[in-house]
Amino acid sequence: MRRYIILTISCVMMCAQLSAQRKQIGDAKTILKSGKNCEQAEKLMTDLLKDSANLQNKRIYDIWLQAVEKQYLDINEKMYIKQQVDTVKFFNLAKRMFTVAERLDSIDALPDKKGKSHPEYRKDNAAKMNTYRPNIYYGGAHHLKKGDFKTAFDFFETYLDCDRQPLFTGYDYMYKDPKMGEVAYWATYCGYRLNDPVLILRHAATAQRDDQKLEYTLQYMAEAWDKLDDDSMHIATLWQGFQKFPKSNYFFPRLIDVYNTRGNYVMADSVVNEALAIDSLNELFLFAKSTAMLNMKKYDECLKYCDQLISVNPNQADVYYTAGLACLSMVQRMDPRKDKKQMNQMYEKARPYMEKYRKLAPNEADKWAPALYRIYFNLNMGKQFDEIDKLLKR
Predict the structure, then answer these.
(1) 338: which residues sit within 8 A by CB, 6+ positions away?
(2) What is the pTM of this model?
(3) Number of C-beta neighbours around residue 37 at 10 A
(4) Helix axes 87-108, 149-161, angle to 10 degrees
(5) How many DSSP H helices and E strands does the chain contain?
(6) What does the pLDDT look like over 78-87, one tens digit per residue?
(7) Would the pLDDT of 13 be above 80?
(8) How far is CA 264 from CA 158, 188, 256, 267, 336, in A?
(9) What single string gives the DSSP state of each residue in 322-350?
(10) What is the mean pLDDT of residues 199-207?
Protein backbone atom coordinates (compact mmCIF):
# COMPACT_ATOMS: atom_id res chain seq x y z
CA MET A 1 0.00 0.00 0.00
CA ARG A 2 2.79 2.36 0.95
CA ARG A 3 4.61 1.59 -2.27
CA TYR A 4 1.44 2.24 -4.23
CA ILE A 5 1.02 5.62 -2.52
CA ILE A 6 4.64 6.56 -3.32
CA LEU A 7 4.20 5.59 -6.97
CA THR A 8 0.96 7.55 -7.14
CA ILE A 9 2.63 10.64 -5.68
CA SER A 10 5.54 10.28 -8.14
CA CYS A 11 3.14 10.04 -11.07
CA VAL A 12 1.25 13.10 -9.90
CA MET A 13 4.49 15.07 -9.55
CA MET A 14 5.69 13.96 -12.98
CA CYS A 15 2.39 14.97 -14.56
CA ALA A 16 2.61 18.35 -12.86
CA GLN A 17 6.16 18.82 -14.19
CA LEU A 18 5.13 17.86 -17.71
CA SER A 19 2.18 20.20 -17.52
CA ALA A 20 4.42 23.07 -16.39
CA GLN A 21 6.91 22.21 -19.12
CA ARG A 22 4.21 22.21 -21.80
CA LYS A 23 2.91 25.55 -20.53
CA GLN A 24 6.34 27.19 -20.66
CA ILE A 25 6.99 25.79 -24.13
CA GLY A 26 3.56 27.00 -25.23
CA ASP A 27 4.14 30.45 -23.75
CA ALA A 28 7.51 30.69 -25.50
CA LYS A 29 5.96 29.75 -28.85
CA THR A 30 3.27 32.39 -28.37
CA ILE A 31 5.93 35.02 -27.65
CA LEU A 32 7.91 34.03 -30.74
CA LYS A 33 4.80 34.29 -32.92
CA SER A 34 4.15 37.78 -31.58
CA GLY A 35 7.74 38.75 -32.36
CA LYS A 36 8.01 40.76 -29.15
CA ASN A 37 9.87 40.19 -25.89
CA CYS A 38 11.85 37.26 -27.26
CA GLU A 39 14.25 37.62 -24.32
CA GLN A 40 11.43 36.25 -22.16
CA ALA A 41 11.00 33.27 -24.48
CA GLU A 42 14.70 32.55 -24.11
CA LYS A 43 14.48 32.79 -20.32
CA LEU A 44 11.56 30.35 -20.23
CA MET A 45 13.71 27.77 -22.05
CA THR A 46 16.86 28.33 -20.01
CA ASP A 47 14.78 28.01 -16.85
CA LEU A 48 13.49 24.64 -18.06
CA LEU A 49 17.07 23.49 -18.67
CA LYS A 50 17.92 24.10 -15.02
CA ASP A 51 16.03 20.86 -14.40
CA SER A 52 18.33 17.98 -15.36
CA ALA A 53 15.29 16.01 -16.54
CA ASN A 54 14.98 18.42 -19.48
CA LEU A 55 18.59 18.39 -20.65
CA GLN A 56 17.90 15.92 -23.48
CA ASN A 57 14.74 17.64 -24.73
CA LYS A 58 15.35 18.74 -28.33
CA ARG A 59 12.20 20.89 -28.46
CA ILE A 60 13.49 23.11 -25.64
CA TYR A 61 16.82 23.70 -27.42
CA ASP A 62 15.06 24.33 -30.71
CA ILE A 63 12.81 27.00 -29.21
CA TRP A 64 15.76 28.48 -27.34
CA LEU A 65 17.65 28.76 -30.63
CA GLN A 66 14.64 30.40 -32.30
CA ALA A 67 14.39 32.91 -29.46
CA VAL A 68 18.06 33.90 -29.74
CA GLU A 69 17.89 34.04 -33.53
CA LYS A 70 14.81 36.30 -33.42
CA GLN A 71 16.64 38.75 -31.11
CA TYR A 72 19.64 38.66 -33.44
CA LEU A 73 17.54 39.31 -36.53
CA ASP A 74 15.69 42.18 -34.86
CA ILE A 75 18.98 43.99 -34.17
CA ASN A 76 20.26 43.11 -37.63
CA GLU A 77 17.19 44.71 -39.18
CA LYS A 78 17.73 47.88 -37.17
CA MET A 79 21.34 48.00 -38.33
CA TYR A 80 20.18 47.62 -41.93
CA ILE A 81 17.96 50.71 -41.67
CA LYS A 82 20.78 52.63 -39.93
CA GLN A 83 19.24 52.71 -36.46
CA GLN A 84 21.54 52.89 -33.45
CA VAL A 85 21.96 49.47 -31.83
CA ASP A 86 23.91 47.72 -29.10
CA THR A 87 26.75 46.27 -31.18
CA VAL A 88 28.15 44.15 -28.36
CA LYS A 89 24.72 42.61 -27.74
CA PHE A 90 24.38 41.86 -31.44
CA PHE A 91 27.68 39.99 -31.59
CA ASN A 92 26.98 38.18 -28.32
CA LEU A 93 23.65 36.96 -29.73
CA ALA A 94 25.45 35.71 -32.83
CA LYS A 95 27.92 33.76 -30.71
CA ARG A 96 25.15 32.42 -28.46
CA MET A 97 23.30 31.10 -31.50
CA PHE A 98 26.27 28.92 -32.32
CA THR A 99 26.50 27.63 -28.76
CA VAL A 100 22.80 26.69 -28.70
CA ALA A 101 22.81 25.24 -32.22
CA GLU A 102 25.80 23.04 -31.41
CA ARG A 103 24.21 21.83 -28.17
CA LEU A 104 20.99 21.02 -29.99
CA ASP A 105 22.91 19.12 -32.64
CA SER A 106 24.81 17.05 -30.06
CA ILE A 107 21.47 15.86 -28.61
CA ASP A 108 19.72 15.59 -31.96
CA ALA A 109 22.49 13.32 -33.27
CA LEU A 110 22.39 10.85 -30.38
CA PRO A 111 22.06 7.28 -31.72
CA ASP A 112 18.73 5.49 -31.46
CA LYS A 113 18.21 2.04 -29.98
CA LYS A 114 19.73 0.50 -33.08
CA GLY A 115 22.84 2.65 -32.73
CA LYS A 116 22.02 4.86 -35.71
CA SER A 117 21.98 8.66 -35.79
CA HIS A 118 19.34 10.62 -37.70
CA PRO A 119 19.65 14.30 -36.79
CA GLU A 120 16.55 16.14 -37.98
CA TYR A 121 17.65 19.72 -37.31
CA ARG A 122 21.23 19.58 -38.60
CA LYS A 123 20.80 20.44 -42.26
CA ASP A 124 18.64 23.54 -41.76
CA ASN A 125 20.51 24.80 -38.72
CA ALA A 126 23.92 24.35 -40.33
CA ALA A 127 22.78 26.29 -43.39
CA LYS A 128 21.50 29.16 -41.24
CA MET A 129 24.54 29.26 -38.97
CA ASN A 130 26.81 29.25 -42.00
CA THR A 131 25.24 32.50 -43.19
CA TYR A 132 25.67 34.06 -39.73
CA ARG A 133 29.24 32.83 -39.29
CA PRO A 134 30.99 35.94 -40.73
CA ASN A 135 29.56 37.97 -37.83
CA ILE A 136 31.44 35.72 -35.41
CA TYR A 137 34.62 36.95 -37.06
CA TYR A 138 33.45 40.56 -36.99
CA GLY A 139 32.56 40.16 -33.32
CA GLY A 140 36.12 39.06 -32.63
CA ALA A 141 37.49 41.98 -34.64
CA HIS A 142 35.25 44.38 -32.70
CA HIS A 143 36.54 43.21 -29.32
CA LEU A 144 40.11 43.08 -30.63
CA LYS A 145 39.87 46.74 -31.61
CA LYS A 146 38.58 47.55 -28.11
CA GLY A 147 41.55 45.74 -26.55
CA ASP A 148 39.40 43.00 -24.99
CA PHE A 149 41.70 40.20 -26.10
CA LYS A 150 40.08 37.41 -24.06
CA THR A 151 36.62 38.03 -25.51
CA ALA A 152 38.10 38.48 -28.97
CA PHE A 153 39.91 35.16 -28.62
CA ASP A 154 36.64 33.42 -27.67
CA PHE A 155 34.93 34.76 -30.80
CA PHE A 156 37.79 33.78 -33.09
CA GLU A 157 37.90 30.33 -31.51
CA THR A 158 34.15 29.90 -32.04
CA TYR A 159 34.70 30.71 -35.71
CA LEU A 160 37.55 28.21 -36.02
CA ASP A 161 35.81 25.54 -33.94
CA CYS A 162 33.05 25.21 -36.52
CA ASP A 163 35.42 23.03 -38.53
CA ARG A 164 35.36 20.27 -35.91
CA GLN A 165 31.66 20.56 -35.00
CA PRO A 166 29.49 17.70 -36.30
CA LEU A 167 26.81 20.30 -36.99
CA PHE A 168 28.88 21.53 -39.95
CA THR A 169 29.71 18.11 -41.38
CA GLY A 170 30.49 18.48 -45.06
CA TYR A 171 31.38 22.17 -44.93
CA ASP A 172 35.12 21.42 -44.63
CA TYR A 173 35.96 24.91 -43.43
CA MET A 174 39.62 24.10 -42.89
CA TYR A 175 40.05 23.48 -46.62
CA LYS A 176 37.27 25.58 -48.17
CA ASP A 177 37.27 28.71 -46.01
CA PRO A 178 40.20 30.95 -47.08
CA LYS A 179 39.74 33.06 -43.94
CA MET A 180 40.72 30.30 -41.51
CA GLY A 181 44.41 31.23 -41.52
CA GLU A 182 43.73 34.90 -40.87
CA VAL A 183 41.27 34.18 -38.05
CA ALA A 184 43.71 31.72 -36.49
CA TYR A 185 46.40 34.39 -36.64
CA TRP A 186 44.22 36.85 -34.73
CA ALA A 187 43.45 34.17 -32.14
CA THR A 188 47.19 33.56 -31.82
CA TYR A 189 47.80 37.29 -31.51
CA CYS A 190 45.20 37.53 -28.74
CA GLY A 191 46.95 34.71 -26.89
CA TYR A 192 50.20 36.65 -27.23
CA ARG A 193 48.64 39.84 -25.88
CA LEU A 194 47.18 37.84 -23.00
CA ASN A 195 50.68 36.47 -22.28
CA ASP A 196 49.21 32.95 -22.39
CA PRO A 197 51.52 30.47 -24.18
CA VAL A 198 48.84 27.78 -24.32
CA LEU A 199 46.42 30.10 -26.13
CA ILE A 200 49.22 31.26 -28.45
CA LEU A 201 49.88 27.70 -29.58
CA ARG A 202 46.29 26.46 -29.71
CA HIS A 203 45.61 27.64 -33.26
CA ALA A 204 49.17 28.45 -34.35
CA ALA A 205 49.33 25.60 -36.87
CA THR A 206 46.33 27.02 -38.73
CA ALA A 207 47.65 30.57 -38.31
CA GLN A 208 50.71 29.60 -40.36
CA ARG A 209 48.42 29.48 -43.40
CA ASP A 210 48.35 33.27 -43.37
CA ASP A 211 51.53 34.02 -45.31
CA GLN A 212 51.28 37.77 -44.79
CA LYS A 213 51.50 37.42 -41.02
CA LEU A 214 53.64 34.28 -40.83
CA GLU A 215 56.70 36.10 -39.49
CA TYR A 216 54.70 37.35 -36.50
CA THR A 217 53.02 33.99 -35.95
CA LEU A 218 56.41 32.29 -35.69
CA GLN A 219 57.63 35.00 -33.30
CA TYR A 220 54.63 34.43 -31.01
CA MET A 221 55.19 30.68 -31.18
CA ALA A 222 58.86 31.06 -30.26
CA GLU A 223 57.88 33.23 -27.29
CA ALA A 224 55.32 30.64 -26.20
CA TRP A 225 57.74 27.69 -26.32
CA ASP A 226 60.30 29.77 -24.41
CA LYS A 227 57.73 30.53 -21.68
CA LEU A 228 56.86 26.83 -21.50
CA ASP A 229 60.59 25.97 -21.14
CA ASP A 230 60.46 23.67 -24.15
CA ASP A 231 63.96 24.22 -25.50
CA SER A 232 63.72 21.86 -28.44
CA MET A 233 60.52 23.45 -29.80
CA HIS A 234 61.83 26.94 -29.06
CA ILE A 235 64.99 26.34 -31.08
CA ALA A 236 63.09 24.54 -33.85
CA THR A 237 60.73 27.50 -34.18
CA LEU A 238 63.62 29.98 -34.25
CA TRP A 239 65.22 27.90 -37.02
CA GLN A 240 61.94 27.81 -38.94
CA GLY A 241 61.63 31.56 -38.63
CA PHE A 242 65.26 32.19 -39.57
CA GLN A 243 65.06 30.01 -42.68
CA LYS A 244 61.89 31.72 -43.87
CA PHE A 245 62.88 35.24 -42.76
CA PRO A 246 66.70 35.32 -42.54
CA LYS A 247 66.82 39.12 -42.44
CA SER A 248 64.28 39.43 -39.63
CA ASN A 249 65.57 41.26 -36.57
CA TYR A 250 63.92 38.62 -34.38
CA PHE A 251 64.98 35.09 -35.35
CA PHE A 252 68.66 35.41 -36.24
CA PRO A 253 69.81 37.29 -33.10
CA ARG A 254 67.89 34.97 -30.78
CA LEU A 255 69.12 31.83 -32.48
CA ILE A 256 72.69 33.06 -32.20
CA ASP A 257 72.12 34.01 -28.57
CA VAL A 258 70.76 30.54 -27.73
CA TYR A 259 73.90 28.83 -29.07
CA ASN A 260 76.32 31.39 -27.61
CA THR A 261 74.69 31.15 -24.17
CA ARG A 262 75.19 27.38 -24.26
CA GLY A 263 78.76 27.67 -25.48
CA ASN A 264 77.87 25.97 -28.76
CA TYR A 265 79.93 28.35 -30.87
CA VAL A 266 80.20 25.93 -33.79
CA MET A 267 76.42 25.94 -34.26
CA ALA A 268 76.35 29.72 -33.84
CA ASP A 269 78.94 29.99 -36.61
CA SER A 270 76.89 27.62 -38.77
CA VAL A 271 73.88 29.92 -38.46
CA VAL A 272 76.03 32.94 -39.33
CA ASN A 273 77.44 31.23 -42.40
CA GLU A 274 73.92 30.50 -43.66
CA ALA A 275 73.02 34.13 -43.11
CA LEU A 276 76.12 35.47 -44.88
CA ALA A 277 75.42 33.20 -47.84
CA ILE A 278 72.17 35.15 -48.25
CA ASP A 279 73.62 38.63 -47.64
CA SER A 280 77.39 38.92 -47.32
CA LEU A 281 77.27 42.65 -46.59
CA ASN A 282 74.65 42.59 -43.85
CA GLU A 283 76.07 44.42 -40.83
CA LEU A 284 74.31 42.26 -38.27
CA PHE A 285 75.59 39.08 -39.93
CA LEU A 286 79.14 40.40 -40.18
CA PHE A 287 79.16 41.42 -36.53
CA ALA A 288 77.81 38.00 -35.54
CA LYS A 289 80.58 36.40 -37.59
CA SER A 290 83.25 38.47 -35.84
CA THR A 291 81.77 37.45 -32.46
CA ALA A 292 81.69 33.79 -33.50
CA MET A 293 85.35 33.97 -34.49
CA LEU A 294 86.21 35.63 -31.16
CA ASN A 295 84.35 32.92 -29.23
CA MET A 296 86.06 30.20 -31.26
CA LYS A 297 89.45 31.86 -30.54
CA LYS A 298 90.07 32.53 -34.23
CA TYR A 299 91.34 36.02 -33.50
CA ASP A 300 92.86 36.83 -36.90
CA GLU A 301 89.57 35.94 -38.56
CA CYS A 302 87.73 38.00 -35.97
CA LEU A 303 89.84 41.08 -36.80
CA LYS A 304 89.29 40.54 -40.52
CA TYR A 305 85.51 40.67 -40.13
CA CYS A 306 85.69 43.57 -37.70
CA ASP A 307 87.76 45.62 -40.13
CA GLN A 308 85.39 44.73 -42.97
CA LEU A 309 82.44 45.90 -40.91
CA ILE A 310 84.20 49.09 -39.83
CA SER A 311 84.79 49.91 -43.49
CA VAL A 312 81.02 49.56 -44.08
CA ASN A 313 79.90 51.33 -40.89
CA PRO A 314 82.58 53.18 -38.88
CA ASN A 315 80.12 54.15 -36.14
CA GLN A 316 79.13 50.73 -34.79
CA ALA A 317 80.62 50.82 -31.30
CA ASP A 318 80.58 47.13 -30.38
CA VAL A 319 82.70 46.19 -33.39
CA TYR A 320 85.61 48.19 -32.01
CA TYR A 321 85.26 46.49 -28.64
CA THR A 322 85.24 43.04 -30.28
CA ALA A 323 88.34 43.93 -32.31
CA GLY A 324 90.11 45.23 -29.22
CA LEU A 325 89.30 42.05 -27.31
CA ALA A 326 90.67 39.95 -30.18
CA CYS A 327 93.98 41.83 -29.99
CA LEU A 328 94.21 41.49 -26.21
CA SER A 329 93.33 37.80 -26.46
CA MET A 330 96.21 37.28 -28.87
CA VAL A 331 98.56 38.89 -26.34
CA GLN A 332 97.57 36.26 -23.79
CA ARG A 333 98.83 33.56 -26.14
CA MET A 334 102.31 35.07 -26.24
CA ASP A 335 105.31 34.36 -24.00
CA PRO A 336 106.42 37.54 -22.14
CA ARG A 337 110.02 36.30 -22.13
CA LYS A 338 110.22 35.62 -25.87
CA ASP A 339 107.54 37.79 -27.50
CA LYS A 340 107.86 41.15 -25.72
CA LYS A 341 108.10 43.09 -28.99
CA GLN A 342 105.13 41.33 -30.58
CA MET A 343 103.10 41.87 -27.40
CA ASN A 344 103.76 45.61 -27.46
CA GLN A 345 102.80 45.70 -31.13
CA MET A 346 99.51 43.97 -30.33
CA TYR A 347 98.79 46.38 -27.45
CA GLU A 348 99.39 49.22 -29.90
CA LYS A 349 96.98 47.58 -32.30
CA ALA A 350 94.34 47.15 -29.61
CA ARG A 351 94.61 50.76 -28.38
CA PRO A 352 92.79 52.60 -31.24
CA TYR A 353 89.99 50.07 -31.22
CA MET A 354 89.35 50.50 -27.50
CA GLU A 355 89.77 54.28 -27.59
CA LYS A 356 87.25 54.48 -30.42
CA TYR A 357 84.89 52.27 -28.46
CA ARG A 358 85.24 54.59 -25.48
CA LYS A 359 84.37 57.56 -27.67
CA LEU A 360 81.32 55.89 -29.20
CA ALA A 361 80.10 54.28 -25.97
CA PRO A 362 81.15 56.57 -23.09
CA ASN A 363 78.65 54.97 -20.69
CA GLU A 364 80.20 51.52 -21.08
CA ALA A 365 83.15 52.25 -18.79
CA ASP A 366 82.87 48.84 -17.13
CA LYS A 367 83.94 47.37 -20.48
CA TRP A 368 86.48 49.80 -21.94
CA ALA A 369 88.12 51.04 -18.71
CA PRO A 370 89.72 47.70 -17.63
CA ALA A 371 90.90 47.09 -21.20
CA LEU A 372 92.46 50.54 -21.54
CA TYR A 373 94.03 50.22 -18.07
CA ARG A 374 95.83 47.10 -19.26
CA ILE A 375 96.84 48.66 -22.59
CA TYR A 376 98.18 51.91 -21.09
CA PHE A 377 100.02 50.04 -18.33
CA ASN A 378 101.85 47.76 -20.76
CA LEU A 379 102.67 50.62 -23.16
CA ASN A 380 103.98 52.83 -20.32
CA MET A 381 101.50 55.60 -21.15
CA GLY A 382 101.62 57.30 -17.74
CA LYS A 383 99.21 60.17 -18.29
CA GLN A 384 96.52 58.02 -19.86
CA PHE A 385 97.09 55.27 -17.30
CA ASP A 386 96.65 57.68 -14.36
CA GLU A 387 93.34 58.91 -15.77
CA ILE A 388 91.96 55.39 -16.10
CA ASP A 389 93.34 54.38 -12.72
CA LYS A 390 91.49 57.25 -11.03
CA LEU A 391 88.33 56.41 -12.93
CA LEU A 392 88.44 52.79 -11.78
CA LYS A 393 88.98 53.81 -8.15
CA ARG A 394 85.87 55.98 -7.96
Answers:
(1) none
(2) 0.86
(3) 13
(4) 40
(5) 21, 0
(6) 998 989 999 9
(7) no
(8) 44, 32, 9, 6, 32
(9) HHHHHHHHHHHTS-TTT-HHHHHHHHHHH
(10) 98
